[in-house]
Every structure is written in structure tokens, then in C-alpha cells.
Amino acid sequence: xxxxxxxxxxxxxxxxxxxxxxxxxxxxxxxxxxxxxxxxxxxxxxxxxxxxxxxxxxxxxxxxxxxxxxxxxxxxxxxxxxxxxxxxxxxxxxxxxxxxxxxxxxxxxxxxxxxxxxxxxxxxxxxxxxxxxxxxxxxxxxxxxxxxxxxxxxxxxxxxxxxxxxxxxxxxxxxxxxxxxxxxxxxxxxxxxxxxxxxxxxxxxxxxxxxxxxxxxxxxxxxxxxxxxxxxxxxxxxxxxxxxxxxxxxxxx
Length: 253
Hints:
It is built from nine helices and eleven strands. The chain is of the alpha/beta class. Strands 4-3-5-2-1-6-10-11-9 form a nine-stranded mixed sheet, with helices on both faces. Helix 2 (43-57) links the parallel strand 1 (23-28) and strand 2 (62-67). It starts with a helix and ends with a strand.
């Protein structure tokens, strides 16, 4: 048996011992998909993500995913450079579809069933998203990747992630980033910044911490949706979170 297949099976068995969550919404950063590149998708980073996702899906955890598009095009930055904001955001939505197709392909290449659903009609690229369809697919072992944001301009993929987490009744929204949690300040700019292991939405708003946009934070708070912020770029971290290891920051109502 191939070494990496053995490692996946071992991880799946160890995760079965104590699963923290039964259904998750995983938000992935488009910019993280660049890896060491300046643009686009790094094949190694994509493979690392796919292997981690497959490992937890093999334990029976239902997984839905929303991916950003910042590695290809970001609507707001496009608007700042002269693009019409609505068209810029629509271009950003298409960027999330490209990333979603790439992740779906990577998952299927290692034997994990996956389905891309889109917030706007885009057959045959992806099936139009509905909550019922997504839940049925997840119950059958599919990883469901929801592309296209909310389908509307002026909304971020963070807001789209919260919306899908609430609709799908996820136990938690997991925000995989390149930072290992929430800090008192940007740890990449301030070496004295300290990390929170747990924080409330009200505290985030009061301290104006840049975790997600205001709309996303408000939706989570009003719907009692917890968020777990962690470093997804380090291989094995997703499994550690599911095993109950405290490696990131939990945001609670």
C-alpha cells in the first residue's frame, strides 16, 4: 500500500476515537492556494488540502467547503483600480468557481467523492446550490464545495461561508487561514501580539479585530454559529482540530 494512503487510513482511525464535530463548514482562503507562488494555484498546497479533507471525511464527518478567490481576482481591489464594483465582484465569484473545481479535482484524484455546487446557475460546470441537495450529498459521503459566494455583489466569501454554515446547520464554521488563530494585533506586523484561545463576537467587535467582515460576524453572533480559526497551511492541523487539540482560536457567542 502506498505510504500516503497508509497515513490517511491511520489518521482516519485516530480521528474516530473522539470527533469534535459531525458536520462542518470549512472556509479556505484563495490566497493560501498560491502557496509559494505569486499567483494562481500551487499544486502541492492543493494536494495538502485535499489529503487533510479526505482524512476527516473518511471518519464520517460531513464536510462543506467555501473557497475565496483572492489568488485569482478580488472584486474590491479590482474596483479600487477602476473596475465597476458589481462586475468586479462577479469576476471574483468566477475566481471562486475555478478554485472550487481545482479542489474538487484534487479530491476525486485521491478517491474522495466531491461535488461543486454554485450559487448562480452554471451547468454543466456545477450544480445549482440548494440546501436540501447539499445535505443529501453530504449524507452520502460527498464533500460539497459551494462556489460563487452568495451570488450577489458587495458580499465577501466570509459572509457566504457563514450563510452556508447556518443553512446547512453545521456544528461549526472552520476558518482555515495562514495564521494560527486570532491575535490582539496582526502577528505578521506586531511581534508582541498575543493569541486568544477563546473569544466572543462582542469582544471582536469591541476591539475591532479583523477576523471577518462585520456582516459575517453579525450573522454568526445572531445565529449562535461558533467559528474556529486555525492555520490550515500546516499539514495535519485540520485533523488536530477534529481531535480536540487546541491549536487555534474558538469564537463563541
